[in-house]
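Handout, page 2. Input:
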Amino acid sequence: MARIYPLQNVRNIGIMAHIDAGKTTTSERILFFSGKTRKLGEVHEGTAVMDSMAQEQERGITIASAATTVHWLNHYNNVDYRINLIDTPGHVDFTVEVERSLRVLDGAVAVFCAKGGVEPQSETVWHQASKYNVPRIAFVNKMDINGANFHNVVKMMRERLKANAMPIQLPIGKEETFRGIVDVITKKAFFYNDPTGMKIDEGEIPADMIDEVNLAHEELVEFVAGTDDELMEKFFAEGDLSVDEIKKALRKAVIELKVNPVLCGTAYKNKGIQKLLDAVCDYLPSPVDVDHVVGFDVKDHDKKIVRKTDDDEPFCGLAFKIVADPFVGKLCYCRVYSGTLQAGSYVYNSTKGKRERVTKVLQMHAAQREEIPETYAGEIVALVGLKDTTTGDTLCVEKDPIVLESMVFPEPVIKVAIEPKTKAGQEKMTLALIKLAEEDPTFKTYTDQETGQTIIAGMGELHLE
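Output:
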């Protein structure tokens, strides 16, 4: 079976944000507009698809990063893209999950609240993304709430995150008058008169915004021209660049971590999501655009091995998340870096030194799943049938073993003693705790020798609950 989506049309992205910036709502809308869910899930109604654990729906926060596959037809060049979306948690307690998902992503969308702007957690996550060299674009969400201020958020990004934030969209109106977006690159205005956001009307830029748009366009073109000598010459000669040239150069600059394009909208009111998806395809890297993965020789950890992102290379992948699933037992989320993997074949877990059999390969759509016969380099899939594999393990072919660096996790910061209500519950509790520790490396459980109590340790109170 051949690959349906060429590698350059695959995007592995995460959505990172502060707690209430509206990350899950944004993910929900992406699923809706790309045709994966029929009814919109609302976080505060507790029906969001991305928050599929019961605890998450009750609290309205996202705990486990679900990986979802959607496809999107880009409006700009009519190419069909496959987007693997990884929903990352926003609370400090869950830092480890954020770090882990950043390693398997190629790019990210940072969501900011139009009122709160850059909050402390946004800084943490932003710096983590810089550490792993993840290119990102920014989405200023909640443009419709009181106190929304787009320019203030851009200013905060420049000052607090030291980011080169470049607006490629400007909001038309703000708070309850927010009604559309101006595309700075093409200088066209788009109005959302339809509440479901399905229909977008193109129109004239409002008269009071023309100067602002021209200024933003000039700033953008000057930056883009500065990244390339040929463009620089054309810019000096003609004073402007074509839309194609701007997009191409901007994409290159984003991938080289030189710029962060800023978009705006309100996910809850369905405004700006389609443009965000277009931008993901236009500017964020495909698996081919980022550096090849580097691992180590199993016997000699000083010897480096580079695996190209290519279907013809030997298979290697990283198990970045283990989830206990009610239907198939243990699900292992895996980012495939090189080669192909067929369902029913054997893989070698080089971290543990064990051979494992993959019974099924699943493509995950938040809560639904589809079985596929094989997977290719650059994809993110869930594997069924792996017994000994835990988070951060490398899977590869036995005759060509490689260890992708194991992830280093922070030590737990808070400890709590717990005990079951009845004696009979002791065994059940112990088993449940061991299962949790397997899914999450920052969670530890042990018995205190002096008091005989069961102690659990984690990254914060919310985490331990």
